[in-house]
Design goal:
By secondary structure, the protein is mainly alpha-helical. It folds into two domains: about 10-65, Arc Repressor Mutant, subunit A; about 70-219, Orthogonal Bundle (Tetracycline Repressor, domain 2). It is about 75% helix and about 0% strand. The protein is built from eleven helices and no strands. It has helices spanning about 10-25, 35-40, 45-50, 55-65, 70-80, 85-95, 100-115, 120-145, 155-175, 185-200, 205-219. α1 (about 10-25) crosses α4, α1 (about 10-25) crosses α7 (about 100-115) and α5 (about 70-80) packs antiparallel against α6 (about 85-95). The radius of gyration is 21 Å and the shape is elongated. It starts with 7 loop residues before the first helix and ends with a helix.
């Protein structure tokens, strides 16, 4: 049977989809170029021509993961309004909603493998993408602590704890299918509300003091 010749762009997309599924199922180390080539129906040299190596495929998947839906847009509005529940709700909702289809679930699984190995995918995705978002959320929490809205706690602890909680919920809700009793929107809202209630300062300072500290920070 004559093999269908695809344009390079389409063939690259096909190879990435097959490799992503295999990496999610087995982990990077357990997948070979020969296995990817056999699944796609092309030769090993053709894959090398398009990506250079198995590592080249892996890097491409890491670099393009979640590119189509950056979280910044979802967080910008509530951050600008100092809507604390809204900020954490947006973070949770974005993570839950963008980890439910097949491609996103596979990427999430690859990332879980990568975190334990601290390999290239982890370096690209965590160091070049996730750190930026975590820093932005940490800056917001730091500002709200200075303003007296949150109790005094290391903001990095707050952000990492919340991320860990939401990632756990991704596994229960979207992968293990153990939380069908609640919608993603309801889950995001309740998680944010419970979490923020624990962060709120017991006594809020006056608006004048908050404004004075903000002006001092700017100066």
């Amino acid at each position: 049977m004559k093999r269908l010749r695809l344009p390079s762009r389409d063939r690259r997309a096909q190879i990435l989809a097959v490799a992503r599924s295999l990496f999610a199922k087995k982990g990077f180390a357990e997948v070979s170029l020969d296995e990817i080539a056999a699944r796609v129906g092309v030769s090993r040299p053709r894959i090398i021509q398009l990506f250079g190596s198995k590592l080249g495929i892996y890097r491409t998947i890491a670099e393009t993961a979640y590119r189509s839906h950056p979280m910044d847009k979802d967080l910008a509005g509530p951050m600008g309004r100092n809507d604390d529940v809204g900020v954490f709700e947006a973070f949770a909702a974005h993570t839950l909603k963008h980890s439910r289809n097949r491609e996103e679930t596979e990427i999430f699984k690859i990332y879980m493998y990568a975190r334990f190995k601290e390999d290239l995918f982890h370096q690209v995705h965590f160091q070049e993408k996730e750190v930026l978002m975590m820093n932005r959320l940490t800056d917001y929490v730091s500002r709200r602590i200075r303003q007296g809205a949150f109790r005094k706690t290391d903001p990095r602890i707050i952000v990492f704890c919340y991320q860990a909680m939401i990632w756990n919920l991704v596994m229960y809700k979207n992968m293990m299918k153990k939380m069908d009793f609640v919608t993603e929107d309801e889950l995001s809202r309740e998680c944010a509300r419970i979490f923020v209630e624990g962060l709120r300062a017991k006594v809020k300072r006056s608006e004048e003091n908050v404004r004075a500290e903000d002006e001092a920070d700017v100066a």
